[in-house]
Amino acid sequence: MFKRFMKLSLLMVLVFSVLAGCAGKTKEQEENGAAVEETNKKEEKVTLKVAFFQGGYGDAWFKWLKQEFERENQNVTIELEGNPKMNEIIQPRIEANTNVPDIVFVDESLMRKWGPAGKLVDLSDLYETEKTDGKTVAATITESTNTAMDVFGKKYGIPLAQLSQGVIYNVKMFEENGWEYPNSWEEMELLAEAIKAKGIAPLTYPGQYPYYLFPFGHAAYLQYGGTEFIEKITNPTEADIPGVFEDPAFHRTFTLLDQMFKDDWIMKGTLALNHTESQMEFLRGKAAMIFNGAWLENEMKDSIPDGFVMKMMPFPAAKDAIVNEPVIESITSGFGGIPSESKNIEVAKKFLLFSSTDEANRQFTELTGSSRAFIYPVDGLNVSDFTKSAMEATNKYKTVSLVFSPEAISDSPGLDAFGAIASRSKTVEEVIQANVTAAPDKWKENQKLINSK
Fold first, then answer.
1. With CB atoms counted within 10 Å of each terminal CB, which end of the chain scores lower, N or C?
2. Could you give all domains of the chain from N- to C-terminal order, each with its CATH number?
3. Nearest to 167 by CA among 276, 317, 277, 268
């Protein structure tokens, strides 16, 4: 009997031990399982698709971002898709929600179109998030670019670059002929005649794209209209429409532009040339100067002749200027955004923050010869004399950047106006009258768009 009792007791002890062990194991498994699940989640393989406009900035910086981000994030693979026509290619894909990448680096005008339409993730909170270098986007972004990124009070993108656009001249040609870059428009007129006397065209620009004339026009708006005029065209009230388009500043700007073509300052055949073709003619010495931007050197790096030296300068002002000093345009170029259809939004945000660190910004400057739209240290950078001249011009001279409010009629005067004068299809008076006539209806359409948001 005693033996049977002992056997039963031992059996019960074993049962309870097993049950207790199982209970302990279950709890431990739950804890360990949660940890393993979290680890697996962290280590889950992610392919981040990044589509970008492959223009003057090339693709070297994006390749650097891919390499460094993958090194720091072993579970992430970056798949790059660059194309010179990405601005056109990506639009139907985003708007139809087909083959949508996780990140797009394209023209900032698309941000203003897609953001309010719900096609982009609102990144306003990202501006206050610390980057890996301990700084925030909000604390390091330049003032004008911060304003440019605002779309109805929200931020749908991180700016790509801030670049200067002005007059680039052939340094050796100037030195060989004893020419000096002018400090006034009157001196520019004398210089142009001296250049023509040598059988050389004073100027060229990518004639197929009238927006290459904008930097001249925008600098002139400030010079002949002053800061109050800039405020009126970028942030108008209903009372400013359409009268602002009759302002003498527009007339003076377009008259100066018109005179360039009348006086044969512009190289013959310019209107038929695209950006690389016109830049090639400049590099060949067919024109002494070119209207262009800080990206030119990187865009033409394989075609620049040995020993060729160029320098960027601002647009000089005429004696009757209200702001009587040289002006150069410094604008926001491109943005990085996350399409709403991205399947990897949090990783994409991390990538955008990484792309905006001081280290990434310095790499961008060295690899592209241009500036990011952030405040970051540039000491010790390995950049060319041309890049230094572009940065110096932006720091030394007065800058202009037209950042249009939602109320503004940002396309008036636009490509049509500059293109019409360049092609000689309209007179200055006809261009101005066309904008005055169209302004009221454009204003009304703009207000409808704003009120529908």
1. N
2. 46-162+332-391 (3.40.190.10), 164-330+402-451 (3.40.190.10)
3. 317
